[in-house]
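pasting for ref
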Amino acid sequence: MMSMSDVPCNGCRACCIRETLILHPEMGDKPWEYLSRTLTHPLTGGKVFALDQKDNGECVYLGPDGCTNYEKRPAMCREFDCRKLYLGVQKGHPLLKLAAYLAERDLMPNEVLLAGKARLNTL
């Protein structure tokens, strides 16, 4: 059983907008159960499934009051912690390379890192 992220989002949706949310079958995600698309993974070059996005870049499951698929959200959404991503980037963790790569290609907005920084006191 996976641990659930305990990030106090308080209405923040930075990771739901313009973020490439890759599905992970090895972590229990079933791509056929989601509105998804096939992409080339930016680091491995392999084919992966990612959640669809609306024309404005929001996750297809993001509604006016938050995630409309919260109980069935994929592993990445259950486990993601913007605070730990921010700390990893600050400490030169290998996530730094991934975060920089994704930010450069507009696959992960800088707002995600800023959201993590703003919530550091809640770790």
